[in-house]
Each structure stands twice: as C-alpha cells, then as structure tokens.
Amino acid sequence: MVIDRPARRNAMTMPMYAQLVDACAQADGDADVLAMVITGTAHAFCAGTDIATFLAVTNGDQGLAYERRITEIVHRLEAVTVPTIAAIAGACMGGGLLMAAACDLRLATSSARFGAPMAATVGNTLSADSLDLLVDRLGTANVQRMLIGAEVLGADEFASSGFVRVVDNVNAEVAAVTASLRDSAAQTVVAAKQALSQRRAARLAALPSDDDEVRKVYDHPDFHARIRAFLDR
To answer: What is residue 59's DSSP assignment?
Structure first.
C-alpha cells in the first residue's frame, strides 16, 4: 500500500484508514502475496491523522470512539497473515508511527524521523493499547521522550535497538527482503507472528481501562482550542 497524499505529508483521513483495512484483507486473501508493504510518497511516510479529522471530535465520547477505531485498525494490521514491512522515509508521526510499529519489519532511510509530539501540537492522547504497542517496540524511555518531551527522533537512534534497519535504498531492500521470503518456511513465519500476537494480547488483557482518561483529554477545552489554532496557522 502506498500512502499518497503528499500535499499533507501523507496524513491519514478516516477513508484512507479504511483503505488500509481493505489492503490487509487483500493481502490475506491472495495466496501469491509474499508480504504487505506500506510506504509513502514525496519524502514522507505518514504525518499521522489529518488534524482536520479532529474537528468532528467535539466531546470525550467521540474522542474515545476515535481512539477505539485507531486501535481496531492497528490490530487489523498486526493480524495480517503474511509479513508486513514499513518502508520509511521522512516523517513517521502519530498514527504513522503506530502503523510502522504494528508492522513486522521496518526499513528506513537516514532521513526518517519518528515522533508523537501531540503535547506540543494539538493536545490529544494515545489509548493504553496504542501506548503499549509503542513501549513494546520502542522502549519506555523513548516513548517518554516522544510523549512527554515532544521530541522527534532520528532513525539512527532506533537502529541499535532493532526497531528499524537503516538502509540507503528502501525500495532495493524491500525487494531483497521479499525475495528472501520466497525461500522461507511459511509455517514458521505464521507461528512466530501468532506467538507474538498472543503475547501482546495477554499483556493488553491485564491493562486497566483508560476510557475515563481518554475522555478527559478529548473533553478538555485546551484540545479544542489547539485544533483550531493548528488549522488556522
């Protein structure tokens, strides 16, 4: 899947998220598909959810519904049966970061930048489910830097942890990885994906509900003021 909205740095609308879900179904339904690759255009992977989406979020219940929908989308991407690869250049922010984290493999150019600087922008939040995914993939300290310090981090900072593999040519590396999958034991790959999915599901089952906290954030007057200020820039 190519995220193709360069004028908005490939920011996602809700219909675009629906297209991602459709792409997951297509990958699962085609026996000839070796991998599902997500990439962006115009030197950006994905800048996150289009801020204009939040104009329709006028209260806490609507904010909670939005976060639950994002969780459903992320879970669907995690559940794709074939290996999933995020091919990343440029901005990988917010919802884009969640999509990349939900993939099995991440290839990134040195230009890639990762973050969720919502504390410095529109003042929304992540669900406990989304937070768990980022902590699992990125580590607590890096997530604290992103969410509390509103830092945007470079690809090199994640290379040593294995979150991304920094490459010179993402397209060439994607081709190499998919070619290697032709010789891989499909049952081994499926078993590994299922085991990792069950591990995360067990962890999520133990998390307390964060519904009230999510509602508070999306109900807060500062959130609505920040949305208007961001769009008026």
So the answer is: S
Contact 12, 3 (CB under 8 A): yes
- Does residue 42 have a pLDDT over 80? no
DSSP string, 100-138: HHHSSEEEE-TT-EEE--TTTTT-----HHHHHHHHHHH
Phi/psi at 2 (5° precision): -105, 125
CA distances to 84, 85, 173, 204 from 181, rounded to whole Å, are 11, 12, 12, 30
Region of residue 149 (left: phi > 0; alpha: psi -120 to 50; beta: else): alpha
120-136 pLDDT, tens per residue? 999 999 999 999 999 99
Residue 199: Cβ-neighbour burial (10 angstroms; 0-12, 13-18, 19+): exposed
Q: Which amino acid is at 163?
A: F
Task: Decide: 139 and 161 in contact? Cβ < 8 Å.
Answer: yes
- Residue matched to tokens 């962890």: 203
Helix and strand numbers (H, E) in the chain are 10, 9
Element (H, E) at 67: helix 60-78
pTM of the entire predicted model: 0.96
Three-state secondary structure call for residue 39: strand
Residue 59 CB: number of other CB atoms within 10 A? 12
Gap between the Cα atoms of 133 and 199, Å rounded: 12
Alpha helices, DSSP H, located in 3-59: 14-29
Closest CA to 218 of 67, 97, 11: 67
Q: Is residue 158 classed exposed, middle or buried when 0-12, 13-18 and 19+ CB atoms within 10 A define those classes?
A: buried
